[in-house]
Every structure is written in structure tokens, then in C-alpha cells.
Amino acid sequence: MNFKFLPYLILVLVSFTTCKKTKLKGEFTSLIGTWHWSRGWGDDGSTHLKLELKEWGHYKLYRDKDKIEHGRVFKKDGYLKFIAEMIFNNKNLTLDTKQIVYISNDTINITKTDCHDCAFTTFRKD
Q: How confident is the prediction for the chain on average, in pLDDT?
């Protein structure tokens, strides 16, 4: 077996476990929980989409019971941004490189990170 790629493999594994994330505490505590797609334009969304946000800064996106994306959120420039931890994403709907631009007790709006006035996707909390 050829072990010359072993250091690279270890480096990749360590980088995935030490990536920056933001714990959902303080002003972000209300985000913890399960959110269902409500509406959006051009996002290939449907009522079958579910977003889970965890206290320790991770998220999972499901279509019905199939996980289609997972990753972490981190705060940058005043917004919570999504970073996928998957090598291959389902491009029908991804949160990777998107951010939460509006938060209320039962609604969040998500849009592209480089476009604050673009169309957004709305999720509502259970």
C-alpha cells in the first residue's frame, strides 16, 4: 500500500473538524430547531424541505427524509453564513455560500452572500 498520501489525508480530516463555526447562543438562540421551507423564488424549494439548526453551529438540510446538505454556520459581517461540508452538493437547492439576512421568532430569510437585495428563501419554524 502506498502511504505517501497519508499526510494529505490527515490534513484534510483535521481541517474539517477544526473549521470555524458560530454557536447559536445569545441573539441566535431562537434559530435552534427545525425550519420548513415556506416560499422562495428561483430556489427549487418546496414544502418538502426542512432545515435543522443545531446549538453548536451545524445545520442539516433535508428533502423529505433525505439529507441533501450539511455543514456549519458562522457569523461574518453581521450575518450568519452557511458553509457546506459535503464534497458533492445537490445543486437543486444549496445553502452553501448563502446567509441569513432576516431573523424573527418564527421566520428566517436566506439569500446569496454577495447579493443583499436578491430574491430570498423563507423558512418558518415548527
A: 82
